[in-house]
Structure formats: structure tokens, C-alpha cells
Amino acid sequence: MRRHLSGIGAGLAGPANVIMQLARPGVGYGVMNSRVHDGSAMLHPVKRARTTFTYIAVAMLGTEEERTAYRRAVNGQHAQVVSTAEEPVQYRAMDPRLQTWVAACLYYGTVDLIERMHGPLSDAEADALYAHCARFGTTLQMPASAWPADRTAFAAYWEEGVAEISIDEPVRRYLMALTSLENLHGPLRRLGPFNLFVTTGFLPPVFREAMGLPWSTADQARFDALMARLGRVERRLPRAVKNLPFTALLWDMRRRQRAGLPLV
Question: Which residues contact 121 (CB under 8 A, 6 or more apart)?
């Protein structure tokens, strides 16, 4: 798995994956209206980024014991995320079906990122990666049996899931605020236009259209050239550098666990 973990790529592709996950109304409203304010990306963007990337690090590189510990910590947060009767969409963050969709988006994004930066995977690599990425869901509340049996079954699941996406105006505004980096302060906000461009590039067309984001042939050419350049740079990096910040966050999670500190 360490061959495929890209800190650079994950930082760039992450916002698009958030949009894909939240395009499922139950996930979108659950995140947007969550009453767990200390985990809010709008209110605490640094903490939310740390916990999200730590989750990916634990899911992909952690031991079974570490995954169990992190699942327990996340459960404590997710158990509080439940819709009220007044909300237009009913949701429950512990719903395994929603967790399966989140895991599917993370897997889709992982493969998409690898192939954009480094070219197609062989069938053997792709099959092994797919099997390993079930951990995106099983580190949460998804039972292993919910993960489609193979890549062919996943393709069918993905098509069915995409047919259920719906981004209404409140969720679209929330996602645009995140994508434009309105939750950040100072000079970092100036990266908003670049982040919007890269995020739009990583989105499959159906999600792009649901967000109302324009995209031209020239935009696609610029994006493809950027990904190719980044791929060339990354292939020259030592693996220890390429895997940052995931390995550093896994180390920090282990430190927190030893010290009895909160994991999320």
C-alpha cells in the first residue's frame, strides 16, 4: 500500500472526494448539519483535516488493533450525528449503507489519482488494491460483506450509487464554501481559485454537473498536464517523503494512544 499512498495527491484530490461523498443526500446533510461542532470542517478545518487523514492512514497502514481503536473513537462522534424530525433529509452517521458509499468514493478516488499521476495499474495490482481498500469501510461501520466482491461488482455498485446522487442548493453552497477555502484564514484563502480548479478536474462529469461547475476542453488539458508533471516529480521522491503526511499521522495516532489522549 505504501507504493500507492500519495500525500501530494491526496491533498489535491481530497476536496473532490468530499464532494463525491456528500453528493449522497444522507451524507451531505449529516456532515453539513452535524451537531458535533469540534469536528466541523467549517469551524475547525485543521483538526478535521488531521482526523480525516489519520483515518486514511490507520485504515490503509494500521494494525487490526489500531483500526479497532480508531473505529471506536469515530463511533463516539458518529453516534451523535442523527437527523431531527424537522430536517428535509433523514440520516444516521452509523448507517452502514452510507459508510459503504463513503468507502466507495475513497477507493474510486484512490485509483483515479494513481492513474492520473502514474498511468494504469496492472490487473494484479488493481485487484490487490481493491481488496485492501475494503478497509476504508471496515475501519468504520461497514461490514466486510457489504464491500462488492470484485472490481466488476464494484463497477455495478458505483453506477447504482451515482444514480442516487443529488446536490441541492444548501449542500452546494456548503461544498462551494469548503472548495473555495472560505473556512481558512489569511493567505491560505488565496489558494481558493487553484483549489476550485483542481477539485473540478478531479470530479467525474456527473458530479461536476450536479455542482454546476463549468469545465472546458482547455481546462481538461491544463489539468492533465498538471497531473503528469506532479507524477514525474513524485516518482523521483523517496517513498518516505511520498507517504507524508500519512506516516507522520499514524505515528501521532500511536503516540496519542500510548498517552491516553483522544484519537479524534
Answer: 111, 114, 115, 129
Residue pointed to by grid coordinates 478535521: 48
With b meaning 16 or more CB within 10 Å and e meaning fewer, what string describes 129-165? bbeebbbbbbbbbbeeebbbeebeebeebbeebbeeb
List the one residue out of 86, 169, 145, 140 whose CA is nearest residue 264: 140
Cis amide prior to 143 (ω within 30 degrees): no
Question: Among 58, 42, 73, which residue's Cα sits nearest to residue 264?
Answer: 73
For the stretch 67-115, pLDDT in tens is: 999 999 998 888 888 998 888 888 998 899 999 999 999 999 999 999 9
- Report the SS3 class of residue 225: helix
Averaged pLDDT score across all residues of the chain:
93
Tell me the Cα Rg of the chain: 18
Quote helix, strand, coil % in the chain, to nearest 5: 70, 0, 30
Provide CB contacts within 8 A for 120, sequence distance 6+: none
Q: How many CB atoms lie within 10 A of CB 106?
A: 22
Task: Confirm if 6 and 244 have CB atoms less than 8 A apart.
Answer: no
The three cell numbers of residue 228 are: 503528469
| Residue 133 dihedral angles phi and psi, to the nearest 5° | -70, -5
- What's residue 193's pLDDT? 94
Q: Are 106 and 58 in contact (CB under 8 A)?
A: no
pLDDT grade for 38, boundaries at 50, 70 and 90: confident
Angle at which helices 7-22 and 217-235 pack, to 10 degrees? 140
193 vs 185: CA distance, rounded Å: 15
Q: What is the spatial distance between Cα 148 and Cα 153, in angstroms, rounded to a whole number?
A: 5
pTM: 0.94
